[in-house]
## 1
Amino acid sequence: MTHTNEPVSRWRSVWRQLPLLVALLVLWLLLWDHIDALSVVTGLLLAVAVTRALYLPPVLLSGRFNPWRGLLLGLRMMVDVVFASLQVAAYSIWPWWKPMNSIIVVQLHTRSDLVTTLTAEAISVVPGTVVVDIDRERGLLYLHALGTRTQADIDRTHRHVLGIEERIVLAMGTHEQAEVVRAERRARRAGGTTARHSDMHHHEASDQNGGTP
């Protein structure tokens, strides 16, 4: 029974490493001015050697892609890049602006290596934020954020990161991961609604007591 499963697991491991092999091959071919049989063969050999000598955990793909969510993800990324670029440019020429930056820790909703990597890349593409470290096992992102003078600025950056992760999961994550981020989104909305109702009741009670809480 062990001998029967061994070839299957070996082929499964090769299949999981296939996206990395293809990416390394494409990177190798981009370094050359032309593509021929020799460059392809040497690229494949180098890709296999790199994946064997510098072993990385296999990238597990979900096998799911939502074109509409993918389009929304791309459009939102472009809007974020343009807005952040204008904001950073305005900061750089504003003579009275004193920069105050922070290292922020964000707990992601998923533990997927693919989602974590894509989220970190998307954050770093946007000017003003860059990922400085990743705790892969605990799903933590450590990022340097520009212009975080108040707690509200930090909270906004935190929501921005989780929003990027959410859009990536809804576009290409597994069904289980999508359900997790949807549940977290519903919980945040319910929490925000509860907080707003609590504040409204608090202000009403203050008015009835002559302005005293």
## 2
Amino acid sequence: MTPAEPLTVDVPDGLGVVEVLGNDAASVLYLAGAPIWVHAYDNHGSVGELAARAGAAGWDAPRPAELSALRDWLAEPGLMVERGRRGKWPVDRVHGLRIEPLLPLLRLFCRGRYLVSARTMSPTVTVFDRVEADWFGWYPAYDDEDEYILATDRWPPPGLGTVEEHRARIARGIRPALVTAGPPGGAGRYLIDGHHKLAAYRKARVRPLVIDIVPAEPRPLPKALFEDLLPPSARGEFRHALNGWFSGGPLPDGPGT
């Protein structure tokens, strides 16, 4: 996969429907004010990653209605995927990413500056279902055939008819777009929209097209908030991450805290 050059976009009037706090060491995702996921490196002598559902009240929160209004555009965003090579390795290059069509999507985020890019991911990406378990642990991807993503809705998604509609578009050469969000730095990706589309890409055995949105600068994540959002069953797994609070890199809390 080869991401397009990121677009830097200022969002002065964001609605705050989607909010990501923290950095690639530790982060939390909110949807419509409800905490959904926390993610962290395990900080236990390895490069393992951990994720847990965040907050019992937000776990069954309804999908934000604002996301539904964007589904027609995301079904046919007009982005082109070109399969090429970098040396001996096959790569995808995504063309046609523009700011204007993205503005309704970006307004769902908080006010601030964001980096927006487009790429493809492995059709065999491992999807962690937010209703399947309280927490998950895994090792990060070392190439694009070993990827992981955190779902914000049920997986596999209900509604086979919707999956088939997307699969038919993919068969005609259209590339519907998934939307992911995450913290700056690269790790911890949350699937904001596109669960049915991802299922369709899998059926078609085609690499999914992804629009990735991250804050240009980390939004502070206090350790006390992170710990409070952990379900009781996950606290033991996260103890090393909390004890070290990622002393090997920038604190998720932000500088000087």
## 3
Amino acid sequence: MAKLFERRFAELETQILALEATKTMRHSELSGSYPYIDSNSLLGWEVKAKSLLGNVCGEKSHHMAAFIEAEKPVSFSNNFEELGRVKAVFLAAKEDYEGGYLNTVRNLVQAEVFGSELEQASELLSAGYSSAAAVIAGVVLETTIRNLCTENEIGHAKLDKMNADLARAGVYNLLQQKRITAMAGIRNAAAHGDADKFTSGDVKGMIDDVERFLAMNLQ
């Protein structure tokens, strides 16, 4: 996925440079001569760029907000100047992406990795290895909890404490906290060889709950 975004950034940079090169000069009795580019081509590029920024930076990111602001008409301005504004925001986002400073991209890549691990857990469960499946799902859960603590400036500790601290901070509600406690119980029982304390159905529910938790918190 990271390679796909990298390629798309490069494609859109090439496209905006090509669009910039199509500049022509027009004349107005009010403003005199001014640079101009095809408005439909600019609009098309902006739509594609916003789609990428939404996926990579997030719909509520500073990058997206700056891009939307740059698109807005400015008095006594022209669309070539608009191109310059959106280009500046786009290149800033590209630089942050290439520097590894975009949290959303990290989460997307991490979600992809975790998804593969949960698929492995499901396959193990289908083959009858419920304890191994529970342990793998538990590792994904605890890693996600630890990352949420980092993002919210909460100290790392044992899972039950981090879970309580995240709920107390309002990162998620008490119901989610109880679900995580239950999932952690299955993981701990599996890790200690206490297979009589859970069923394969419990592990299946755990994997499903971890998947939902990832979907909610890795955005």
